[in-house]
Design a protein that fits this description.
The protein is an alpha/beta fold. Helix content is about 45%, strand content about 10%. Strands 5-4-6-7 form a 4-stranded parallel sheet, with helices on both faces. Helix 1 packs across helix 2, helix 3 packs across helix 11 and helix 11 crosses helix 13. It is globular. The chain binds 3'-phosphate-adenosine-5'-diphosphate (PAP). The site of 3'-phosphate-adenosine-5'-diphosphate has 21 residues, from helix 3, helix 7 and helix 14.
Length: about 350
């Protein structure tokens, strides 16, 4: 089976927060490893660090080092890359359902009892060679489904040089990304830190200071790579997925090497996948209302936080005219490529 449903299931909170010393020790030491990195204000942690032009949490930097040194990609790997809050959860569900569609019926599908992040884990969830989950990653069947928020420029050569793995990248109107991210992180922000206003988040986002940002630089990195290597990188837009889910899922199947046959199309398999992965369906499932996802040994998130509104244009309800103007200006200055702009 592609993906990791059995052992990455959602968890209840009790008893999970243990054994985090190794990760945290390295976090605390990041300043010694990279003593001269610029720092910026964090959204969820005290600060972010700037590494090769991109902003990461200290832990994100630690994870990157792990990926650089230990991760061994396989030619058959399928990667989902995204900036946070651009549609990762949704696309994980769609890819998982597409790739595994001959294995499961739609009435007892794993996505009905497991959060998409449980089926399609983040690469840096497997942090240590001595950790059993690392062995699980190594032993897992082909194709492995793995996701990352890392910018293209920071991916290790081993992931991109031979150009045999496939990447699916999703991006979204930065105004909705900002609103979604601020809402999400406000819920997860440690109580010890002072409140974090939307105005403050907006200012940092515009300056590029947000996890895996600047947002626009990340989008451009994958866009350029997908223009250069279209067989390896599929570049998708959240808004297109909302508008034409059937067409996008068919394209996804083809790109991933799992094209839908005419018979499947006639039987309505594409529609079934779209329905299974819809916001309405996933957000109402018990697993996504009541369970918790364990991203790593010390990071737990209520599944319900991955499903907020799931619409295009919520920014109209949240941002001032001035904010909208400034974000649109940055977007039109930076995302100059054809098809990269947004209706607004
Ligand atoms: P992540 O980076 O934490 O994984 P991600 O899944 O990329 O988050 O983005 C979450 C957004 O996708 C939320 O948007 P909102 O805050 O504007 O509502 C979430 O509601 C939305 N989302 C989640 N699942 C779906 C879905 N099935 N269809 C459409 N949108 C969805």
């Amino acid at each position: 089976m592609a993906g990791f449903v059995p052992s990455q299931q959602s968890h209840t909170i009790s008893g999970e927060q243990k054994d985090i010393d190794l990760i945290q020790t390295t976090d605390e030491n990041h300043g010694e490893i990279f003593p001269n990195l610029p720092t910026g204000k964090g959204w969820m942690s005290e600060h972010l660090v700037q590494y090769q032009g991109f902003w990461l949490s200290p832990k994100g930097l630690n994870n990157l080092m792990w990926i650089q040194h230990h991760f061994k990609p396989r030619p058959s790997d399928i990667f989902l890359a995204s900036f946070p809050k651009t549609g990762t959860t949704w696309l994980k569900a769609l890819v998982f359902a597409t790739v595994n569609r001959t294995r499961y019926g739609f009435s007892d599908h794993p996505l009905l009892t497991a959060n998409p992040h449980d089926c399609f884990p983040f690469l840096d969830a497997y942090l240590h060679e001595n950790d059993p989950s690392f062995l699980e990653l190594d032993a897992s069947p082909t194709p492995r489904l793995l996701s990352t928020h890392l910018p293209y420029a920071l991916l290790p050569d081993s992931m991109i040089v031979n150009r045999s793995s496939r990447f699916v990248y999703i991006y979204r109107d930065p105004k909705d990304v900002l609103v979604s991210k601020w809402n999400f992180l406000s819920k997860l922000r440690p109580k010890e830190l002072p409140p974090f206003s939307l105005e403050e988040a907006f200012e940092l986002f515009c300056q590029g200071i947000s996890h895996y940002g600047p947002y626009w630089d990340q989008v451009l990195g994958y866009w350029k790579a997908s223009s250069e290597f279209p067989e390896n990188i599929l570049f998708l837009k959240y808004e297109d997925l909302k508008e034409q889910p059937l067409a996008v899922v068919k394209r996804l199947g083809e790109f991933l090497g799992y094209p839908f046959s005419l018979e499947e199309e006639n039987k309505g398999v594409v529609e079934d996948i779209v329905k299974l992965c819809s916001f309405e369906n996933l957000s109402n499932l018990e697993v996504n209302r009541k369970s918790v996802h364990k991203f790593s040994r010390d990071s737990l998130v209520d599944n319900r936080h991955f499903f907020r509104k799931g619409i295009v244009g919520d920014w109209k309800n949240c941002l001032t005219d001035e904010m909208i103007k400034r974000l649109n200006q940055i977007t039109s200055d930076k995302l100059f490529g054809p098809g990269l702009l947004f209706d607004n």
